Amino acid sequence: MSAPRLEIDLDKIEHNARSLVARLADRGISVTAVTKAALGSPEIARSLLQAGASGLGDSRIENIEAMCHANVPASMTLIRSPMLSQVERLVTHVEVSFNTELDVIRKISFCAQKARRTHGVVLMVELGDLREGIMPGELENAVRQTLRFPYIAFKGIGTNLACRSGVSPDARNMAELSTLAESIEAKFGLTIEVISGGNSANVPWALSGADTGRINNLRLGESILLGREPLHRQRINGLHTDAITLIAEVIESKVKPTQPWGEIGQTAFGAKPPTQDRGDICQAILAIGLQDTDACGLEPPPDIKIVGASSDHLIVESGLHLVPVGTELTFQLNYSALVRLMTSPFVTKVISPKIGLPDATLRTRETGRAFFDA
């Protein structure tokens, strides 16, 4: 089998999703399963739905289109603010989108009217992480204007934390979101359908026994695919952390010094070269590099230490013994490494168990969209 490759265990992904769906349902919270790190794979999407996810969310319209073309039976949500240039595609393939700009909602309304389709809008609120979001004091006016647009259904409000600044979801900011929802309901005499509290970083808070208030939805990707929460990368009890693994092949294995020689400048990616001379080591090079993944997000097997990377090479120290050329090593992943690996067309994606196909091998075209090479 070719390398490098991602080995994707659908049974473990479905177990993780089913566990989180059930545990959060006990707290009155539904799960929108996020497929962006799965590159819109229909097979992974179907597993998430079979596990009980209420719908699918993705930040890329291309991934949503791929799932729609594969007849994935789900309500689709675009969880990144739409680009004006993609609004017509949005209205065609997406039921709900997260929005922060009235100019975008205005164009969605125009295109939805032409298509005679009602489009759902969730307004995102800024609660401290300083990524996307309407400032709380401006939310009332945004709701008022949104309600006036034809062919737009105001679905609710949401927020996003942790992604840009690492702000933790907690009792204070989640209570603020609940208060904003209740204020909007009282002001406009309506009942908000969706109050989306955030992403996988919210899982520890949601399962802690804290008062979840009006929060009734979370958008989960990393916690399902990797079994970890993003704030501290800690394993979530009862979940698999090895549902997706990287396999890479050794292409060189030699004894080499740890200290480079010659006049030293910047490396290809601007990193500093090693400064500590530890003598000679057993060094191996694997055929994968920074063009394909985030080397800092890889966890090597025991007795293997990552010591460097370039665009095409991952350099490891192999302890007291040389690793034979052709050996395949298995690496665990964090979210950063996973997203880049899934996007790389040079990394084969192998899904098991096979899903009714003669060869359940997921590859990527030049567009980066997922498809099966059957």
From TrEMBL:
Where in this chain does the record put each Alanine racemase N-terminal domain?
8-223
Q: Which Pfam families match?
A: Ala_racemase_N
Q: Does the keyword Acetylation apply?
A: no
GO CC annotation terms, alphabetical: cytosol
- What is its cofactor? pyridoxal 5'-phosphate
Q: Kindly indicate where the leader peptide sits in this chain.
A: none
Under the heading InterPro entries, the entry gives: Ala_racemase, Ala_racemase_N, PLP-binding_barrel
Keyword annotations of the record: Isomerase, Pyridoxal phosphate
Recorded GO terms, molecular function? alanine racemase activity; pyridoxal phosphate binding
Output this protein's name: Alanine racemase
Q: Which organism is it from?
A: Stieleria bergensis
